[in-house]
Design brief:
- A hairpin with an 8-residue loop joins strand 16 and strand 17.
- 7% of the residues lie in helices and 57% in strands.
- It is built from two helices and 17 strands.
- By secondary structure, the chain is mainly beta.
- The strands form three sheets. Strands 1-3-4-6-7-10-11-13-14-16-17 form an eleven-stranded antiparallel beta barrel. A two-stranded antiparallel sheet has the order 8-9.
- 35% of the residues are buried.
- Bound molecules: copper (II) ion.
- Copper (II) ion (CU) binds next to loops.
């Protein structure tokens, strides 16, 4: 009898333990550091009903050297065709975003940014010069809709648009225009000048230590801006994997394929023979970026849900249409707080 009781007790204990192990988490949760995707991914997560989030982000990107297709070319070679060619460029972007969820099924998002661009160029006579531009960029508004949620996986869609609040009239002094200012090329302008549509579909999954995500996104531009051109449409396929090392820290790896179409139309104030950056034949690209980063999240206490994240991204493949500056690296830093 005692034997049976012991066996019964052992079995009950085993069953209870088994239940403890097989019934931990059935829903996807954002209450872990990798509950948000890598910081460079936009629209990666949604919020719960009544929740707000504020996000301050800093993005630094750097381009250097010339490439034609997937071959490097020298400035001298490019100067056979153009009077001026670019040598390097930095773009610094400070972004402010707010998210609010009126329901579990819907999260609203608004985003504004301030950008500074700096470009070094070289003239055919061998003289270098520099141009700068800065200002607010385009304003993004979006809604994220939960499509499916179950078995620690979710699927949501993003539908948004971009308002042309960024200037496309930026000018600076160049050796050719001095003492006056000349219109700066397409890549030095703050916005697209058109109303653009943003669409994306994001799949997220979670295990106990690992999490993963996949996002297909696009930017569709319509019509023409008041400078008679339209920037290229964009298509991105982003995939990432994260590993949670502690309840406050996770590391991520990301691989993103991007295709950007060429500029359609021509700004009448830009002369394509003058500068490689003013020729719309030199626009559009396909590239594959790799990103390495980490997320941190305060797991409890008064600052619960304060997050800090970082990512370093670099191209492992790039095909640039025409002659363009090579993409080198992108740093993204972000501070997020939800309540
Ligand atoms: Cu958020």
């Amino acid at each position: 009898m005692k034997k049976y009781l012991t066996a019964l007790l052992a079995m009950t204990t085993l069953l209870l333990c088994a239940q403890e192990n097989t019934n931990p988490q059935t829903q996807w949760t954002d209450e872990r550091p990798d509950g948000h995707g890598p910081i460079s991914v936009v629209g990666d997560h949604m919020h719960q009903k009544g929740e707000w989030m504020f996000n301050i982000e800093y993005v630094h990107s750097y381009m250097e050297g010339l490439q034609m297709g997937n071959q490097e070319i020298s400035p001298a070679k490019a100067l056979d065709k153009y009077m001026v060619v670019p040598e390097k460029m930095t773009m610094d972007m400070q972004m402010l975003a707010a998210m609010y969820a009126p329901s579990d099924k819907l999260t609203l998002m608004a985003m504004t940014m301030y950008m500074t661009m700096d470009m070094d160029l070289l003239m055919r006579n061998g003289n270098p010069f520099n141009v700068r531009s800065s200002g607010i960029g385009d304003t993004q508004l979006a809604g994220l809709l939960k499509i499916w949620d179950g078995n620690r996986q979710t699927l949501h869609g993003l539908l948004g648009f971009s308002l042309p609040t960024g200037s496309i009239q930026k000018k600076d002094v160049t050796p050719m225009s001095a003492p006056g200012e000349a219109k700066l090329p397409y890549g030095m302008q703050m916005g697209s000048g058109t109303y653009d549509g943003n669409l994306s579909l994001t799949y997220l999954g979670q295990g106990n230590l690992f999490s993963w995500g996949s996002q297909l996104s696009g930017i569709l531009r319509f019509g023409q801006n008041d400078r008679d051109y339209r920037l290229g449409n964009q298509l991105h396929l982003n995939n990432w994997l994260a590993y949670k090392t502690a309840d406050w820290l996770s590391f991520s790896g990301r691989l993103e394929w991007t295709a950007i179409g060429s500029i359609k139309g021509v700004d009448p104030n830009l002369n394509p023979i003058m500068s490689a950056t003013a020729d719309t034949d030199n626009s559009g690209e396909t590239l594959i970026n790799a990103g390495l980063g980490f997320n941190t999240r305060v797991p409890k206490g008064t600052l619960e849900d304060l997050r800090f994240a970082f990512e370093y991204a670099f191209p492992i493949y790039q095909n640039l249409y025409g002659v363009q500056l090579k993409n080198k690296r992108v740093f993204t830093l972000g501070l997020q707080y939800s309540f």
